[in-house]
Amino acid sequence: MAEFIAQFGGIGLAFLGAALAVGLCCVGSAKGTGMVGEAATGVLSENPEHFSKCLILQVLPGTQGLYGLVIWFFALYTMGAFSGGIVDLSVTQGLTICVSCIPMAIGGWLSAIYQGRVAASAINVVAKKPDDWAKGIILCGIVEFYAILSLLASVLLLMNAL
Q: Rounded to two decimals, what is the model's pTM?
Protein backbone atom coordinates (compact mmCIF):
# COMPACT_ATOMS: atom_id res chain seq x y z
CA MET A 1 0.00 0.00 0.00
CA ALA A 2 2.79 2.38 0.91
CA GLU A 3 4.49 1.66 -2.42
CA PHE A 4 1.26 2.39 -4.29
CA ILE A 5 0.84 5.72 -2.49
CA ALA A 6 4.48 6.62 -3.06
CA GLN A 7 4.17 5.83 -6.77
CA PHE A 8 1.14 8.07 -7.34
CA GLY A 9 2.10 10.59 -4.69
CA GLY A 10 0.09 13.52 -3.50
CA ILE A 11 -1.26 14.39 -6.94
CA GLY A 12 -2.90 10.98 -7.30
CA LEU A 13 -4.55 11.30 -3.89
CA ALA A 14 -5.77 14.80 -4.64
CA PHE A 15 -7.27 13.72 -7.97
CA LEU A 16 -8.89 10.75 -6.23
CA GLY A 17 -10.64 13.06 -3.76
CA ALA A 18 -11.81 15.39 -6.52
CA ALA A 19 -13.06 12.47 -8.61
CA LEU A 20 -14.93 10.96 -5.65
CA ALA A 21 -16.64 14.28 -4.92
CA VAL A 22 -17.96 14.78 -8.43
CA GLY A 23 -18.50 11.10 -9.20
CA LEU A 24 -20.46 10.10 -6.10
CA CYS A 25 -22.53 13.29 -6.14
CA CYS A 26 -23.47 12.70 -9.77
CA VAL A 27 -24.33 9.04 -9.10
CA GLY A 28 -26.56 10.11 -6.21
CA SER A 29 -28.20 12.81 -8.32
CA ALA A 30 -28.83 10.38 -11.16
CA LYS A 31 -30.44 7.92 -8.74
CA GLY A 32 -32.53 10.64 -7.05
CA THR A 33 -33.74 12.31 -10.22
CA GLY A 34 -34.47 8.91 -11.72
CA MET A 35 -36.72 7.95 -8.82
CA VAL A 36 -38.66 11.19 -9.14
CA GLY A 37 -38.97 10.78 -12.89
CA GLU A 38 -40.41 7.31 -12.43
CA ALA A 39 -42.97 8.60 -9.93
CA ALA A 40 -43.88 11.56 -12.14
CA THR A 41 -44.65 9.53 -15.24
CA GLY A 42 -47.74 8.03 -13.62
CA VAL A 43 -49.12 11.44 -12.68
CA LEU A 44 -48.30 12.94 -16.06
CA SER A 45 -50.00 10.13 -17.96
CA GLU A 46 -53.31 11.24 -16.45
CA ASN A 47 -52.65 14.95 -15.79
CA PRO A 48 -50.06 16.33 -18.23
CA GLU A 49 -50.80 19.87 -17.04
CA HIS A 50 -48.75 19.11 -13.89
CA PHE A 51 -45.54 18.74 -15.89
CA SER A 52 -43.86 21.89 -14.57
CA LYS A 53 -44.55 20.95 -10.94
CA CYS A 54 -43.19 17.46 -11.48
CA LEU A 55 -40.15 18.81 -13.30
CA ILE A 56 -39.26 21.15 -10.44
CA LEU A 57 -39.49 18.27 -7.97
CA GLN A 58 -37.32 16.14 -10.26
CA VAL A 59 -34.62 18.77 -10.60
CA LEU A 60 -34.12 19.17 -6.84
CA PRO A 61 -32.02 16.00 -6.26
CA GLY A 62 -29.85 17.04 -9.20
CA THR A 63 -28.31 19.94 -7.30
CA GLN A 64 -25.93 17.65 -5.44
CA GLY A 65 -24.26 16.78 -8.73
CA LEU A 66 -23.62 20.48 -9.22
CA TYR A 67 -22.24 20.79 -5.69
CA GLY A 68 -19.86 17.92 -6.42
CA LEU A 69 -18.71 19.71 -9.55
CA VAL A 70 -18.05 22.85 -7.50
CA ILE A 71 -15.84 20.86 -5.11
CA TRP A 72 -14.08 19.28 -8.07
CA PHE A 73 -13.24 22.79 -9.33
CA PHE A 74 -12.12 23.90 -5.86
CA ALA A 75 -9.86 20.85 -5.57
CA LEU A 76 -8.33 21.48 -9.01
CA TYR A 77 -7.86 25.14 -8.10
CA THR A 78 -6.14 24.13 -4.86
CA MET A 79 -3.84 21.83 -6.86
CA GLY A 80 -2.93 24.76 -9.12
CA ALA A 81 -4.62 23.50 -12.27
CA PHE A 82 -5.91 26.96 -13.21
CA SER A 83 -2.72 28.88 -12.56
CA GLY A 84 -0.38 27.46 -15.16
CA GLY A 85 0.24 23.93 -13.93
CA ILE A 86 -0.44 21.47 -11.17
CA VAL A 87 2.00 21.89 -8.30
CA ASP A 88 3.95 18.91 -7.03
CA LEU A 89 2.11 17.82 -3.91
CA SER A 90 3.52 15.80 -1.07
CA VAL A 91 1.58 12.74 0.03
CA THR A 92 0.39 14.66 3.08
CA GLN A 93 -0.87 17.57 0.95
CA GLY A 94 -2.57 15.21 -1.49
CA LEU A 95 -4.21 13.31 1.34
CA THR A 96 -5.38 16.61 2.83
CA ILE A 97 -7.09 17.56 -0.44
CA CYS A 98 -8.55 14.07 -0.76
CA VAL A 99 -9.99 14.09 2.76
CA SER A 100 -11.33 17.63 2.21
CA CYS A 101 -13.47 16.31 -0.63
CA ILE A 102 -14.98 13.48 1.44
CA PRO A 103 -17.79 15.49 3.14
CA MET A 104 -19.20 16.49 -0.23
CA ALA A 105 -18.63 13.07 -1.77
CA ILE A 106 -20.55 11.19 0.91
CA GLY A 107 -22.97 13.94 1.92
CA GLY A 108 -23.88 14.74 -1.67
CA TRP A 109 -24.22 11.11 -2.70
CA LEU A 110 -26.55 10.13 0.11
CA SER A 111 -28.55 13.35 0.33
CA ALA A 112 -29.31 13.22 -3.41
CA ILE A 113 -30.76 9.74 -3.03
CA TYR A 114 -32.81 10.63 0.05
CA GLN A 115 -33.97 13.88 -1.47
CA GLY A 116 -35.07 11.89 -4.50
CA ARG A 117 -37.15 9.67 -2.22
CA VAL A 118 -38.79 12.69 -0.61
CA ALA A 119 -39.44 14.32 -4.00
CA ALA A 120 -40.86 11.07 -5.39
CA SER A 121 -43.26 10.97 -2.46
CA ALA A 122 -44.13 14.62 -3.05
CA ILE A 123 -45.29 13.65 -6.52
CA ASN A 124 -48.26 12.06 -4.71
CA VAL A 125 -49.17 15.51 -3.42
CA VAL A 126 -49.15 16.81 -6.99
CA ALA A 127 -51.52 13.99 -7.97
CA LYS A 128 -53.98 14.43 -5.12
CA LYS A 129 -53.74 18.12 -4.15
CA PRO A 130 -51.88 20.01 -6.88
CA ASP A 131 -52.26 23.36 -5.10
CA ASP A 132 -50.26 22.02 -2.12
CA TRP A 133 -47.24 20.89 -4.16
CA ALA A 134 -45.01 23.56 -2.58
CA LYS A 135 -45.15 21.60 0.66
CA GLY A 136 -43.18 18.88 -1.11
CA ILE A 137 -40.54 21.41 -2.11
CA ILE A 138 -40.20 22.51 1.51
CA LEU A 139 -39.73 18.92 2.62
CA CYS A 140 -37.07 18.47 -0.08
CA GLY A 141 -35.39 21.67 1.10
CA ILE A 142 -34.76 20.16 4.50
CA VAL A 143 -32.74 17.35 2.91
CA GLU A 144 -31.01 19.92 0.65
CA PHE A 145 -29.79 21.73 3.77
CA TYR A 146 -27.51 18.81 4.60
CA ALA A 147 -26.07 18.76 1.10
CA ILE A 148 -25.30 22.46 1.54
CA LEU A 149 -23.60 21.74 4.87
CA SER A 150 -21.48 19.10 3.13
CA LEU A 151 -20.60 21.61 0.42
CA LEU A 152 -19.65 24.22 3.02
CA ALA A 153 -17.50 21.75 4.95
CA SER A 154 -15.56 20.71 1.85
CA VAL A 155 -15.11 24.32 0.68
CA LEU A 156 -13.77 25.40 4.07
CA LEU A 157 -11.45 22.42 4.27
CA LEU A 158 -10.12 23.01 0.75
CA MET A 159 -9.58 26.71 1.45
CA ASN A 160 -7.22 25.70 4.24
CA ALA A 161 -5.74 22.57 2.63
CA LEU A 162 -2.32 23.91 1.65
A: 0.89
